[in-house]
Design a protein that fits this description.
277 residues; alpha/beta; Nitrilase/N-carbamoyl-D-aminoacid amidohydrolase; 29% strand
Length: 277
Amino acid sequence: MKIQMIQHSPCLGDIKKNFAFHENSINEAKKDNVNLLVFPELSLTGYDLKDLIYSCSLSQDNIFVDKFKELSKDISFVIGAPWEEPKGIFYNSALVFDKGELIHIHKKVQLPNFAMFQEAMIFKNGTQFLTFDLKGIKCGILICREILFPAYAYLYHLQGVELLIAISNSPFRGLNKETFSSFSLWERAGEVNSINYQMNYIFVNRSGFENGMGFGGGSFFAKAGKGIVNKLAYLQEDKLTFDLDLKNMREARTGGNYLRDENGRVVLSELKRILEC
């Protein structure tokens, strides 16, 4: 599978302009014979939506959903957008389009609501981590803060996910000796998910500035059993195209046998014991 990751800076609340960027990127990716194109969290709208949510959310009867379906007839892609379902209830969502259809919606479970983040004022929490099939590859999705809760990637590990797609709107924060500590945070998570959970792992973060927040970019691909092997630029728009070969899944799993030897029933039993205390 040929995959392309795009980190860019959407225009806050301007769904028409942002759609045009998506459309152009998708058409260019088709020319390069890309099979899967991945955009960042809330790529269609920008992040700090507040009351803008009412004018730029998507739903099943939205014209932009129909346009994305049309664009997906020859290519698969993941976008980030607010999803309204039922009417008046909004979710921070990742939408997966393939073969002319909207095949999967992941609704963000972990909504940050502190410091510069106010998502819980706008969105409702999702409740599930479901997998989906994309061109014969078992996939799952995490959105931003969900990445920092190892149990969520573990749920996908138990389901045998081969490609975990993580999309984000992460600002750059906290200087350390070499870089911003926020970059180190996402990269450590990528190493853990790819090596300990033996998944191919994509992290796609936005770039640019919005309402005083600077977003860090630094997207990357981490190969199952190997860790990070490709990385995009920090602090600027960038894209990366690479080939995903699932042979490394077999090598990673037989090398460690973590998935084979995983005992989810023990974990479930212990969770019940701990949570019922």
